[in-house]
Each structure stands twice: as structure tokens, then as C-alpha cells.
Amino acid sequence: MVLTALALFCCTISGDTPRSPAASASAEAKVEAVAARPDSPSPKAIAASSANSDVDAATASAAGNSAVQPLVLTPAKPAVAESYETPRQRKIWYGLMVLGHGTAAFDAWTTRQAVSGGYGVESDPTQRPFASSGAIYATTQVTPLIMDFVAHRMMRSNNPMIRKAWWIPQAASASVSLGAGLHNYSIIH
């Protein structure tokens, strides 16, 4: 990023001496006034007689040589990759995102209730230090967040098989959290 900014800065410097804004505006106005504007292309006429066609062909070839020709004849590759996601998929993705984060919060609440009530202990060793505090609500949101990212990348993948299975990470995360929350709820009540 620093190199890009440096390159842009160096490309904008046109000389060693700094110019005043008034001088640069008047110089640009003079350059625009003096610069010759290109003519519009003349239409290619197809002559009916053979005598006129020789003259027209010579004129067309002379005009074609003086015109500016593109350096590359093939179209450029777009800078942004094509997005394969549809508005319907995006709505489903948001719905699964809400479902995943909601079930994770439900799992955190039931886990905290079960641990605080002495009904059991947290079986996940990474969650065990947070099970008796309010931090469990934040730590249980990490997995759904990662699954949201993975599902979004899968939805935009170039591979059609991966694009068809984009919903699986979010659905699996939500179902595991819901199952754990229901298990904890059955222990509490």
C-alpha cells in the first residue's frame, strides 16, 4: 500500500519546480484550447461502379492507416470476478446467519445455566474457562462467524459443486448449537 501511494505520488509530479494553482489552471486551459480535436470517423461508402470502388478502396485504406488502432484486439479480462450468488441465496444466507448466531446464543445461555446450577460441566475444553462467566456469549459466536465466512466463500466459488453446497457449513453449525442447547435445557428443567 505504501508502494502504491508512492507510485501515485511520483506519477503526479510533472516537474522539478512547483506551480501555483492559478498558473496550472491557465496552462491547462491554453493546452486544451490549442490541442487539436480528432475528427469523427468518416462513413465507409460502398460504391456501385467498379471505377468508384477502386478510388473508394484507396481512400478507405489511407483513412484506415491514419486512424488510431487499438494495441490489443481481444477484450480485457474484467477486474472483478463474476459473482455467482443470487438475491435469493443472499437472503437465505442472512437467514442462516441469524439462525446460527441465535442457536449459539441459546447454547451459551443453557450452558451457563447448567454450569452455574451445578448440573454439569462444560465438555468443550476451549469453552470451559468461559462457561461460568458472561464471556461465553462472545466465545460461542466465533464458530458461527467462521461458518458464515466459509459459506459466503463457497457461494461465490468457481466450482459448481461447491456452489451447490454453500449452505451446509451454516446449517451444520446451527444444528450442532441447537442440539447442545436442547440437551442443556433438558438437564436444567
Outline of the structure:
The chain contains eight helices and no strands. The chain has about 190 residues and is mainly alpha-helical. The protein has a domain at about 90-189.
Biggest sheet statistics: none
As a whole number of angstroms, the C-alpha radius of gyration is 34 Å
Mean pLDDT: 78
Q: Helix share of residues?
A: 55-70%
Low-confidence stretches: 14-18
Provide an overview of this structure.
This protein is an all-alpha fold and 189 residues long. It has a domain at 90-188. The protein is built from 8 helices and no strands. Helix 4 (87-116) packs antiparallel against helix 6 (142-155) and helix 6 runs antiparallel to helix 8. The radius of gyration is 34 Å and the shape is rod-shaped. The two termini are 57 Å apart. The model is unreliable at 14-18 (pLDDT under 50).
What's the topology here?
Blueprint: H1 2-12, H2 21-34, H3 50-66, H4 87-116, H5 135-139, H6 142-155, H7 160-164, H8 168-188
Helix pairs in contact: 4-6, 4-8, 6-8
